[in-house]
Design goal:
about 170 residues; mainly alpha; 3 helices
């Protein structure tokens, strides 16, 4: 991500101040003042103190709606709990997309692949069968196993590509 110019930083700061003004205005509308403000006891330091007390409470609401983009600058992280964990998207109808790909709902995977093979083969390798005469009784089973693995792999591949997790 390119370095922000001073003008871009200042513009972003102004946007944040406007957003804070909006939140404060909304809260003031919810809780109108009774009577006039005592202008002798209210000063800049008191306003800052109130903001320090109230803004974290507003930000700690259980649901925060953002009506624009959420931008994480470099070296910023999303930190989640380690006891129960957290979710991104809480329904299979909510849409996600990654790396500029259009968001989609959670892809369906169909039935789980059942593997009845207990042993054999080379890990991470599918061998070419050049002479099935030795395996004449199992040729159809071998072919079907390879077909089912390829079919399942295509489903996974399409889902990852659809979400933008793989190109």
């Amino acid at each position: 991500m390119p370095q922000q110019t001073e003008e871009q930083r200042q513009k972003r700061q102004e946007q944040l101040v406007d957003q804070i003004r909006q939140v404060v205005s909304e809260e003031l509308l919810k809780h109108p003042f009774e009577g006039d403000i005592d202008k002798q006891s209210v000063n800049v330091e008191r306003v800052k103190e109130v903001i320090r007390e109230i803004v974290p409470t507003l930000l700690a609401r259980s649901i925060v709606s953002i009506e624009g983009n959420l931008q994480l600058l470099d070296s910023r992280n999303i930190i989640v709990g380690s006891t129960t964990g957290s979710k991104v998207a809480t329904s299979n109808l909510q849409k996600l997309g990654f790396w500029g790909i259009a968001p989609i709902i959670r892809p369906t995977n169909g039935a789980d692949l059942t593997n009845n093979v207990t042993d054999g083969g080379t890990t991470d390798q599918i061998d070419n069968f050049t002479d099935l005469s030795t395996y004449a009784n199992d040729a159809a089973t071998i072919r079907n196993n390879i077909y089912q693995l390829a079919k399942k792999l295509k489903v996974v591949n399409d889902a990852l590509r659809g979400m933008g997790l793989m190109s």
